[in-house]
Amino acid sequence: MATEVAFWALAVVGVASALAVVLLRDVFRAALVLILCFLAVAGLYITLSADFLAFVQILIYVGAIAVLLIFGIMVTREMQRGSPHSRLRLPALVMAVALLVTLIFIFVGTDWAIRTTAPTFPEGTTGPLADVLFNEFLLPFEVASVLLLAAVIGAIVVMRERNR
Amino acid sequence: MSIGLEHYLILSGVLFSIGLYGVLAKRNAVIILMCVEIMLNGVNIALVAFSRYIVPTAPTVPTALTGQVFAIFVMTVAAAEVAVGLAIIIAIYRSRKSVDVEQMDLMKW
After folding, report:
1. Is residue B109 part of a domain?
2. pLDDT band at residue B62 under the 50/70/90 scheme
3. Which residues of chain B make contact with A60, given a CB cutoff of 8 A?
């Protein structure tokens, strides 16, 4: 019962804040509402008993990505212009609604192999996750670290002021 | 009515569609980057819900946590994407004094 209340509350908050990001005119307010959306998603992870992911979500999205986005808004001084819609507003709406209808149709129509008992992790998912990550997924893990290094170097190179 | 897999999947589809609309319909490049993040969050919800509700059948990955590991990789790539994306946006802003995607037509023919 508690899980249901939590799910519906978090789902409403998440969808409403995501809609606000798209519809608000003020860029900075959109960024703040986006943080609320990230927090709602973190709460949804907890209702799915994914505690480690919930904390990673708060650390990376709320802590790092949101700060980077707000930094980007401040640097680019687009606050006065607001967040206008492009000429493609109506086709985009049609496209998004069509995708949503198709997705819901597929999700409801598919015969999922639902497990009868939920997997239990009495000491949290952190230890079991590390076990999986450093055994089965060791190579992707190392590739991800190379990707992060490349992204850092790429960001520095792209943003560096050319000395003329 | 208890919460099942379909609830989480439909929620993730709604978030993905909202993000897609924002990516297609907005002109501010920073807002577009935010909407991409909303789309990635929707995908992550679906992945975590699968790892909670679906019986793993592939013989090589016998664990119930595969979906959560995928979500961790999605977050890693999202962090790299935001860093590079913002760097590109700031570089464009520096040379063109605007982050309006309708004015970024240098490579259009």
Report:
1. no
2. low
3. 75, 78-79
